[in-house]
Specification:
By secondary structure, the chain is mainly alpha-helical. The chain is built from 14 helices and six strands. The chain binds protoporphyrin IX containing FE and 2-acetamido-2-deoxy-beta-D-glucopyranose.
């Protein structure tokens, strides 16, 4: 459940004395929620490869969902790694996502939301009904499928065109590019984690089923149920909606287009969690109704408050949560390749 930085161990000697030892404890990977669910081919055929094992470990909370390790481009490309092309893509995405002042820009926020809107259009109940498609399949980038015209994707049209161009230029899969760009955008924001990033997904052959993305006006119970049907429990959802730390709205309060959801939308910080529950909200911000109701839902409020003062905790939990999101509808997890090493280094400093 809640984790504390200090692990207090009380050793009691039956004869003479009590000794209290305390020492720093590493950030636990599992905060003690409900058992984590497996996904895709990990459920049907189990672990078949080292990547399959890695993703399974992350999904189960046994291994971290982030990694600071930057791999050298020259050696990766000399070894003809499938990751080689992603260094070039990373260079292009940095140009797209990084603002002059070192923060992340509107393209970056749109790319983070794009990753969610592609991957999030998948559910367990659809799968059980034989509709195991949608998810992280790049369908949102396929113009002929028309997802760019769905109401919930309003505001994403511009980034969709930009990502189509990057995919064409570098001849990579759409599904992979969407998820890669979302993770690249997060680490382009100062304080953002390097979320573990995998490539090798299959691209969509049909549009995602409709009605699977959340409404900003929904009740917390309905939002929680919607995400549970994607294997995303309330704790995981608490971490994911923190992406609104770097978001702006353009289609809710149309009188104030571009108003942000926290006071530092170019920085991947935890002020969002505090500002959402402030008793006197900052009038310059536009707090989403969905974030307000989720923050006060008993299944999420404890974790919500825990993140307010703990960037490391949020980054760790967001990373694991996003790896899960990026695997929804992916049924060849064992065949993926990890290319986290190609992402830019994380940055702790910002203006
Ligand atoms: C309860 C779940 C969620 C709801 C109801 C929700 C709703 C919204 C809404 C209404 C907007 C404003 C769109 C506009 O007016 O242009 C928005 C923006 C955004 N959302 Fe969410 N969201 C949810 C979860 C997430 C998740 C899980 C992520 C990512 C992991 C995410 C990332 C973003 C980002 C980055 C933006 C800013 C987009 C931009 O500035 O162009 N959201 N969201
Ligand atoms: C959270 O916001 C309140 C004002 O609403 C402020 O007094 C408090 O210091 C903030 N806490 C943190 C950890 O930023």
């Amino acid at each position: 459940m809640l984790f504390s930085r200090i692990w207090v161990l009380v050793l009691t000697s039956p004869l003479f004395f009590n000794v209290v030892l305390s020492f720093p404890r590493p950030i636990p990977l599992n905060d003690g929620d409900a058992p984590k669910e497996l996904l895709g081919d990990l459920l049907t055929v189990g672990v078949r490869t080292t990547t399959g094992q890695t993703v399974q470990n992350i999904l189960l909370g046994l291994e971290s969902g982030q990694s600071a390790v930057v791999v050298d481009q020259t050696s990766a490309c000399a070894a003809q790694s499938v990751c080689c092309v992603w260094y070039s893509i990373a260079t292009d995405l940095t140009k797209l996502f990084l603002a002059r002042d070192g923060t992340c820009n509107d393209n970056a926020r749109a790319a983070i939301r794009l990753g969610f809107h592609d991957a999030g259009a998948w559910s367990k109940s659809n799968k059980a009904a034989g509709l195991d498609f949608g998810g992280a399949d790049g369908s949102i980038l396929i113009a002929a499928f028309g997802e760019q015209n769905r109401a919930e994707n309003n505001g994403l049209q511009d980034i969709i065109i930009k990502m189509q161009k990057v995919a064409t230029k570098w001849k990579v899969g759409l599904a992979d590019l969407v998820q890669y760009a979302a993770n690249h955008a997060v680490v382009t924001c100062p304080l953002g984690p390097r979320v573990r990033t995998f490539v090798g997904r299959k691209d969509a052959t049909q549009p995602a089923p409709p009605g699977l993305l959340p409404s900003v006006h929904a009740l917390s119970s309905d939002l929680i149920a919607l995400f549970q049907d994607k294997s995303i429990d309330p704790h995981t959802l608490t971490a994911l909606v923190g992406a609104h730390s770097c978001s702006k709205q353009f289609n809710q309060d149309t009188a104030h287009p571009g108003s942000a959801q926290d006071s530092t939308p170019g920085v991947w910080d935890v002020t969002f969690y505090n500002e959402t529950i402030a008793t006197k909200p900052n009038k310059k911000l536009f707090i989403f109704d969905s974030d307000k109701v989720l923050a006060s839902d008993a299944r999420m409020s404890t974790e919500w408050r825990a993140f307010i003062s703990d960037q490391a905790h949020w980054n760790e939990d967001y990373s694991a949560a996003y790896v899960r999101l990026s695997m929804l509808g992916v049924n060849n997890i064992n065949d993926l390749t990890e290319c986290t090493g190609t992402l830019p280094a994380a940055r702790q400093k910002f203006p």
